[in-house]
Amino acid sequence: MSFKTAALFAAAILTLVLAPFAAHAAAPTVINNTKTSEHKGLFGLPLFLKPEDGFDFEKIADGCVDKVKKVEFKAAQIRLGYDKVIEGFSSEKLKKSGMDAKDSVEFIINGSRATLFRMFQKTKGAALGKWVMIIDRGENSWMVNGSYDSKDSPCAESVLKMIKSLCWDTWTGKTMDSAPLGNINVAGTTMKQAGIADGAFVYTKDGKLPTKSPDGALFVVSRSRGVRALTHEQRLAFAREKMHDVDKNALITIGSEATVNFDGLPGVELTGYTDDAEKKLIYITVLFDSKDAHVMAGLAQKNTVENSQLFHDLSKTYKLGR
């Protein structure tokens, strides 16, 4: 199994459970930072940054500054949801504020959605370069701004490394409005959480996305809003549609269909295989409440029998958030 094949396979399942009616998009990069003794609390928020060697920061209002290297960081909490804040960072709106946005990248940092912008701002003196990170904090957002002399390329790289080093204390508030209503328990299994992508929890055996595990096993827990499937046939039809959305160009043979009830939620469980030389396993369990569908989807390219049992055991641990 090539890395390219594994990456495409992972992208297929993410497309299936996260945006079944949207165009394909690559899964964002996942960054997981652990707080170390080198991380410093330099902001008014519970954020910690790891300064690069050679930088000496002193605290200022809402952040810190190295006056010698002309590098400044500021952080603020915005009382708007992440998506609303991102809308305000369109090229047109930034230009009206005297900012020139060059590019942006989305990723998952410490389990939260984030977007990093690279931009430049004209001032009376030298032009300022800026790395601006917007972090999803549920009903609010965090904005971290790292500025530097735009002509100083080494400083630009250092500021980028520092802003990507951010971590924070465990936050027990609401994570994301799009997050699943519940989750699974991977304790005692071979699966590890690889990250959160568009509100779905993603698990792989190596904790990486795309996974590099030999069997390509991937398990995703998500939610589809506004799905009302009252009869058994309606539920089966919804699950079959999800299964066949994995690869619209492949024939899928459904091997088994069963009625399940996990954590008091009725649902269906389907196991299928692609009708090609690889015989990839596609596993789907969908649980239904009065207004939403809770989707658990697994894929594997090898060890299909063992992984089918693993996916079933994981689905049984699903607990609805209450």
Q: What can you see in these coordinates?
A:
This protein is of the alpha+beta class and 322 residues long. Helices cover 20% and strands 39% of the residues. It contains six helices and 19 strands. The strands form four sheets. An eight-stranded mixed sheet has the order 1-6-7-8-9-5-4-3. Strands 12-13-14-18-17-16-15 form a seven-stranded antiparallel sheet, sandwiched between helices. Strand 15 and strand 16 (265-274) form a beta hairpin. The model is unreliable at 1-6, 16-26 and 171-179 (pLDDT under 50).
Element pattern in H and E: HEEEEEHHEEEEHEEEEEHEEEEHE
Quaternary structure classification:
single chain
Helix content: 10-25%
Computed Rg? 22 Å
Main pleated-sheet profile:
8 strands, mixed
- What is the average of the pLDDT values? 82
Strand percentage, roughly? 35-45%
Derived structural class: alpha+beta
Q: Helix count? A: 6
Write the topology of this structure:
Layout: H1 3-18, E1 29-31, E2 47-48, E3 58-60, E4 63-66, E5 71-78, H2 82-87, H3 91-96, E6 99-109, E7 112-121, E8 128-137, E9 140-149, H4 153-163, E10 167-168, E11 182-183, E12 192-197, E13 200-204, E14 218-225, H5 232-244, E15 252-262, E16 265-274, E17 281-288, E18 292-300, H6 304-316, E19 319-320
Parallel strand pairs: 1-6
Antiparallel strand pairs: 2-10, 3-4, 4-5, 5-9, 6-7, 7-8, 8-9, 11-19, 12-13, 13-14, 14-18, 15-16, 16-17, 17-18
